[in-house]
Amino acid sequence: MILGKSRIVWLLLIALCDIAAAGSDKKEKARYPKHLSTEPFASFKLLDVRLTEIDREFRKFKEEADQGSKTLQSTKKRTALRTLHSSKSLRELRSSVSNLHKVTVRLRSRYRSSGHRYGQRIFNMLDRKALTLRGRLESLSRAPTWSATRFRERQFDKALVSFVLQYQGISGGYVALACSPGDWTCCQPKKVQLKGTTPLNGCTWLCTNKIRSCRLGCLGPRAPTNAGDRAELFSGDRP
Q1: What global pTM score does this model have?
Q2: What is the mean pLDDT of residues 173-179?
Q3: Overall number of domains in the chain
């Protein structure tokens, strides 16, 4: 069969487009860092653990503060405040907040080198909120009076709520994904806002079989071919 020149040119154009698309995907896969193979989902699980610890330890700290502040004698009040500053509950709270900040620093660093601008933006913001939380706790641990302790306690609580809202805006919905083997997970940008709060940059987590379809968002891990590994990746179970 003899093809006309226009038919041949048309077929060549289709072939070139297919080659270009395949080449684009290969370049994207080559650029995708191997250390992001389970991120950010692995870090989400760690953050869940840290937030549970912080909630428990902060409640314990407030209970001890309540007891100490009820002391009537001024000398005993000062002694109770010093005891609170060196308490086990405060040491544990400081450790948990520090560990939470380490996770956000790692996420920020990893996505800084990934080439995904939206990922850089949301994890930079999450890390800044973790740094604020850490600063509020240090301020609380140095409060010179009981009234200052109560005020800084509320400031820490507000910083914790702010962090949780940002974290939930980024991570919400990832455990509900049911991606096919080999599909990529993708955070598509979305604005998250609760009544009376400032809009936050968050994620709508989706599945896609093309990396370039996530170019405006933030690329997550690729769904493993093994069913058990997929179930573990999307389970949300803590490490």
Answers
A1: 0.81
A2: 91
A3: 1
